[in-house]
Amino acid sequence: MTRAPSDPMRIVVCGTRFGQVYLSALRRAAPERFRLAGIVARGSARSVALAEEYGVPLYDKVDQLPDDIDAACVVVSTAVGGGRGVELAQALLERGIHVLQEHPVHPTELADCLRVARRAGTQYLVNTFYPHLEPVQRFTSAARRLVRLRKPVFVDAMCAVQVSFDLLDILAGIFDGLRPWSLSPVAEREGRPLVAVDGQIAGVPLTLRVENRMQEGDDSTSLFLHRITIGTDAGNLMLANTHGPVIWSPSLRMPSDATGQFLPSRSDAAERWPHGLGTTGAYVGAAETPTWATALDEVWGEGVLAALDELRERVDAGVDPLQGSQRPLAVARAWKELTESLGYPEVAHPDSGDPLTVADLTG
C-alpha cells in the first residue's frame, strides 16, 4: 500500500522500555501526521499492558505486521548493547517499512542498514535523540553563531557513557562535522568516576570527561547526561545540562588609564567605558529548566516527533537513503574509537536516598 503525502504515517514502536517515550510522543502527535498502529515486542507483562493502554495490537514478529504500516521506531538495543535491534531494523526495511532507529549503532551496522534501505527503496535514520531537544537546539543554534563570529579555542564537555554517541552528534552539528578529529590515549581510570580524554574536534582542542560506569541493568542512575562549553576569546557558551539552561559568559575587558588603574568607580569611568563593562553572564533563552516529569513527557516527546518529522520529509521527498549519511557515519566511527579507548564501563553502585532539592542546599 502506498501512502499519499497528505496521509498520516502509520507507525509501530519496537521495544517498550525506552520505547515508552516514543509511545507517549505518538499519543501527543497531530493525527494527520502520525498514528500509532501497533507495538512490536516479545510479549512481556509491560508490553501487554502498554498495548492495552494505547489500544493497539501487540506483535512479536515482523512478518505479523499488516501491509499498511509505513514506518517503525526501533527502540531495541543493537549488538553493542547486547540486543538484536539491527537485525530487526533490517527485517523491517526489507518489508518496505521505513525505520527510525535509536542510537547507538556500530558504524559497520549503520552502513549495512543504509545499504539494505537503498536496496529496498526505504529510508533509514539513526535517532541520536538529544540533539532534537529544545534546550540542546537552543544551545546548538547559539554555538553555531558563536563559532562564525569568533574562532573557538576550546571545547570542554562532560557526559555519561551511554549518551556519548549523541554528545558527538551535538558537537558535529555545531562544527558541521568532526574533522580534524583525534583522541589521545586515556590515562589510568581505576576508581575514578570520570575518565578524562583529550583530543581535538573540528581542529579545536577538546577536553572530554566521561562517566564510564553504570548500574547493572539500569542506565538511568548516571550522575549527569551532558554538559558542554564552547570557549572563545570573546567568552564562553555553556549548556549547563541537557535540559538547560544555556549561559553566555563574556570575557572581562578592563581598559586601564595611563597609570594602569581600571576600577569602574573612578570619576573618568564613563569616558573610558562609555558602554559599561557589560554583564558577567546572561541566559540564552529561558533561565528555568523543566521538571523531570515535563522533560520525560513533553520535551523528550517533542524531540521524538522532530526526528519523525525528518524521517517523513525524507520519505515524502523520495531522497536517496545515503543522502546525508556522512555525518552519522562519522559520528558512529568517532564513537567507536572513543568507547574502545574508554574500555568497558565499570559497575556503579549509586547511593540511594531521598532526592535533594535546592531548598536542601540553601536552608
What would a concise description of this structure say?
The chain has helices at residues 19-28, 45-54, 85-94, 107-120, 134-149, 164-175, 269-272, 292-317, 326-342, 358-362, and strands at residues 9-14, 34-40, 58-59, 71-74, 98-102, 124-127, 152-160, 182-183, 195-201, 204-211, 213-214, 226-232, 235-239, 246-250, 282-283, 346-347. The protein is 34% helix and 21% strand.
Task: Walk me through the structure.
34% of the residues lie in helices and 21% in strands. The protein has 10 helices and 16 strands. The protein folds into 2 domains: 9-127, Rossmann fold (3-Layer(aba) Sandwich), CATH 3.40.50; 132-297, Dihydrodipicolinate Reductase, domain 2, CATH 3.30.360.10. It has an 8-stranded mixed sheet with strand order 8-9-10-7-12-13-14-15, covered by helices on one side. The model has no long low-confidence stretch (mean pLDDT 91). It has helices at residues 19-28, 45-54, 85-94, 107-120, 134-149, 164-175, 269-272, 292-317, 326-342, 358-362; strands at residues 9-14, 34-40, 58-59, 71-74, 98-102, 124-127, 152-160, 182-183, 195-201, 204-211, 213-214, 226-232, 235-239, 246-250, 282-283, 346-347. The chain is α/β, with parallel strands linked by helices.
* SS-derived structural category: alpha/beta
Distance between the termini: 63 Å
Classify the fold: give the CATH topology of the largest domain: Dihydrodipicolinate Reductase, domain 2
Q: Which stretches are poorly predicted, pLDDT < 50 over at least 5 residues?
A: none
Measured on Cα atoms, how large is the radius of gyration? 23 Å
The name of the CATH superfamily of the largest domain reads Dihydrodipicolinate Reductase, domain 2
Strand content: 15-25%
Biggest pleated sheet = 8 strands, mixed
The strands making up the biggest β-sheet line up spatially as: 8-9-10-7-12-13-14-15
